[in-house]
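Hello, quick one for you while I still have it in my head. No rush at all, and the record is pasted right below.
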Amino acid sequence: MKRKSGLSKINSFLAVVLVVCLVATAVVIYKYPVITETTEGEDSASTGEEIVIDEFVAGTYGGKEFATVEDVVNYYVECYDYTKTLTANYTENGDPKTFYKLLGDENLTVQNLLVEGKSNSMLDGLVPGIVGGLFSGNVIGLPPSGNRDPQTDTRNDGKFNCTTSALTVDDVAMANVVDNGDGTITVTIQPKEVILSMPGEDAQGRFFNTLGDISGVVESISVLSFSEGTIDENFVVSYAGGKGVVTIDTKTGEITTADYEMDVHIDVKHANVAVLKNKSASLDIVYTNHFPASAEFMKESRGVVAK
């Protein structure tokens, strides 16, 4: 059976969150008039690429020589591919299973929820309940994987094989290396900014568990329409500023720990919902993975126990 990441529900989740925000605004406007119109031309979307990690410095780290950013990316890919060949024995709800040796968790938070450029405590209070009801973190392999079983670790209906990395230097805005002094190095990678990332098809989608095309979900919401423009113009999903930080044992080439943070900004403009006309909303999604996942998380979330 194919095991889906909790992220598989994220498209519906985002659409629900944004529509709830816009509908709830009707109540806020009439009962608590604290949300005001933004001035023409204001835009909270990303305005360009920003490097959020340290610059690369050529040198020898952990006995490995890195002369360029490309060297760093290629070494990450090499170690990613090797680490994903390593498996271990587990039980899942009592049944014997073979999964990746290195398994991680996933978590998602919604931040900076704005309607008409303003926040409101009532709207902020709605979000935790929606998140908790629609998103449940899974046990997964290294991203862009959404699966813990190497036999079924694909995305895009099997078109994108996640057992090896497709990342290239052209996908990377910056990468750097730190020598930890114990035979390990830490590699940090920031992929390039992408609008509406598709798994396996762009810089973000070859590094993170990106959301894919959510416009179809938005179009299916019957109560939502747009006062002007197309859905592609009015529903903008921007990926920027995220990074991955991995620790590698240079003697073996194995990734031993890793933390990934994918940052997504969503803007909705000219939306019509219920009595509201030509309104805007925005929010930030922070999606994280930590490796290795704790024994407690694996057992409580999916009944997975290492033998």
About this structure: The first strand starts at residue 59 and ends at 61. The two ends are 21 Å apart (CA to CA).
